[in-house]
Amino acid sequence: MASIFSKLQFWKGSSLLPGLWKWIVALVCVVTLILFVVGMYWSNEPGQFDVVAEAKASASARGDVGDNKPLVVGYTTANTLYKMVDTLLNKPGGFISNDVMPPGVFMDNMPSWEFGVLVQTRDLARAMRKEFSRSQSQSTEDVNLKVAEPQFNFDNNSWALPSSESEYKRGNKEILEYMDRLVGNSRKEPAKFYARSDNLVDWLSDVSTRLGSLSQRLSASVVKVRENTDLAGNKSAQDASHNDVFKYVKTPWSQIDNVFYEARGTSWALIHILKSVEVDFAPTLRDKNALVSLRQIIRELEATQESVWSPMILNGSGFGILANHSLVMASYLSRANAALIDLRSLLEQG
Predict the structure, then answer these.
(1) What would the pLDDT profile of 197-207 be if each residue is shown by its tens digit?
(2) What is this structure's pTM?
(3) Among 32, 178, 259, 265, who pairs with 117 as Cys (CB 3.0-4.6 Å)?
């Protein structure tokens, strides 16, 4: 006991202990700085890509078409779906939403951006399985798309057994097989893609509801009184719950930046999908004189991708001194949604 006591006294009076603590503190500071820098790098949003160039490069690399042959209808849209998922998985930091280790576990803006892209990926995969690849309601589902669509709907927060990445990769593998079948570069039955106006209208209807929801959530960055219009236009309509004549709506301050980046991810995905639609549905859009309307929607969405120079998403009170980035984003999405509604009206006309 005396020897142990003497050793404790030695360490207590030793100059090694303060020096050790200095090294520990310095190491923690260095690790924190490294994680901060890596987190900043991972937070950079991927740039836009040329949907036609990517489709041609993919077709050439896989031997689906020659250099001078035009792409078949639907190939650009299918490849855009594949490329968006590939971007989610292979951008700096990879897929961050399911990270359980730093710095990913401390990040929330990039996971929100990923979720915005993922929602549009899921909607497009469902539209391809349910509408674009089928000639009528009684036709059979495509063998690859009926596997790919559930894979993209897998939980985005699962990190193991199985991980989100492994399920999304499997979905992308099915999309590649569908693309091969689309051009007849497979021993299996050729795939189909029907670029009809009614198919496009159904998918645009889903996009409109997504944009409408995001616009409302963005606008609620400031407290608003909203009239209850849930049952407007139908006297006999009923609701399961009792709702007041009006209500106050407000997005929690901790969620404002998350909603903003979800909207940026949604817009990023829609820009590419709509550019693919412009290619694959070109005859239909020209027949309805709707190409200009589609391009206007793309322009409105491209405005949402401008650089954010502020170090944080500001939440000013509308006409107050500080800016309100959410209201600016809501303005662009609302205008895009309005143009989208006009586009749907044009396509529905005979």
Answers:
(1) 999 999 999 99
(2) 0.88
(3) 265
